[in-house]
Amino acid sequence: MKLNHQHVHRARLALFSLPTVLALLCFTVVQPTLAGNELIVIAHKDVALNKISPERVTQIYLLQQQSWPDGQAIQPIDLREGSGIRRAFYDQITGRSPGQLRAFWARQSFTGMGLPPRQVDSDEEVTRLVQSTPGAIGYVSRRPSGATVKVLLTASLD
Fold it and tell me: Is the model's pTM score more than 0.70?
């Protein structure tokens, strides 16, 4: 069978099927979220710490530590599942994958041991809630400008 130019062109177009195009679009949507290559853990300005270890952040986000050293209740703020910075946070800070995290919270909820942290849609929402909620802690991909929050930990995402 002899291939002409038109057949070759159709074959090339078939390489860019709808699933391929959607996958490429999803990748380009996630990338800008991680553009700063940093993960910054912030807390309300009145939190009694000036720095925090990744281990303690893990304990907070898995509800193993629920109060600050001064006794104030911790209010963790989380980004929604599917966010690139959330995936990086749980992977690099807690060492847990999205699937492991879902299983953990399913067990916690089922046994009545706890509910996951409050989830929001953006860095800006995390910053706003941390700034206005005593005892709050959250993570963002960029250092907040103009916000009155404490930066407790900065981790590189490289």
Answer: yes
